[in-house]
Amino acid sequence: MSKVQFHGEAVPLEMHKVRIVQKLNLPPIERRLEVMTAAGNNTFLLPNAEVFLDMLTDSGVNAMSDRQQAAMMVADDAYAGSATYTRLADKLTEIFGTDYFLPAHQGRACEHILAKTFVTPGTVVPMNYHFTTTKAHITLQGGTVEELVTDAGLAVTSDLPFKGDMDLGKLRAVIEKHGADKIAFVRVESGTNLIGGQPVSLQNMIDVRALCAEYGVLLVLDASLLADNLHFIKTREGAFKDLSIREITRKMADLYDVIYFSARKLGCARGGGICIRDRALYERMRGLVPLYEGFLTYGGMSVREMEAMTVGLDETMDEDMIDQGPQFIGYMVEELDKRGIPVITPAGGLGCHLDALRFVDHVPQAQYPAGALASALYIASGIRGMERGTLSEQREPDGTEIFSNMELVRLALPRRVFTLSQVKYAVDRISWLHENRRLIGGLIFFEEPEVLRFFYGRLKPVSDWQQKLVEKFRADFGDSL
Fold it and tell me: What pTM does this model have?
């Protein structure tokens, strides 16, 4: 990915060409309101045929390269001893330097195996910040999560380049409080998902490794968002700017006992896996793969996807490939910020994040402002984003609501999928919505699942605010979609 000057404006320039296209549909706004109502104001429940720009996630929806598509044709579909597995395992050893690999069908399957192996009732997992499924797997095993991101990492607007860093003082205090024998493992998430895709510095990882070594505690890396994090280390962390992406990756990987990832993000395929340095740790986890996933050489994945993953991991070591996402995201964040629209700064990986607490500051947090903003955005534009706030939390056992540190609407930008004109459309419709933000009201549940409610819970508006939004849209845009 490069940038060029167009009449004095720095614009991202794609270093690839589009050879396969998929037709999109932009339903009229009245239809969008009807569809959103039927989905219970949950963007996860929207049928994709009714979505114009799908910015829900970058998981499993990144565009594959021609090399990945070609690799899928040579897959070895043997149940056991597949050559496809060998090629993938060898590529991971080449990149990460680990000796053992366990395949799994996606990242949360890796979390399941890790939690089943290491988490027992009363144990603690310190981490820079939680991810929804990670926390769920740990708590289901009777463990607890301690979030230790630096205080500055929770600042919504900032120029801090690495807001995902772990607070070393807090980490030491947690280990001392509970005792090293009660620490199941320490987890570092590269590109902290729920606070805006914010990266972790390589120096912070080095310091965390030293502290874990001091206490003899296991250190685990969630590398699902590694590609973005590598870009930011290369471009923001001066001490390592002269290293290649491969060199940064290896320097990082050497710090960890276990590395797991979702290939739906890392590698632009569908699957996942656990890379392990020590044979004893490998043997502790190995038996869970055939029990929950599939045989040890496919782990619930399609061998075609495994071949695509092997090539995708190799392409992740290409700066032009990993730069594309962060530069598109950076462009979108900058354009919205210039218009006074509240976004997380600096731009992180994964996507552009709208700050709902400022965007709709009149909506009480108990009425899920990020969920309401995501609903309003779809109605106004046909763009599907994802709520990353209180709706994504779980209630306490007594029913008490846990209010999230941040209320975000994530607008993911899958790699090599959208054009710059589509990003500009998103900026325009978000700008209109911001101008009319006082029309947006809150949401309340009418179907609330006990676990992972944000996936399939249903909500309704607290008033007729959505119909008023449609009326204002028609007054401003006429017959336009």
Answer: 0.90
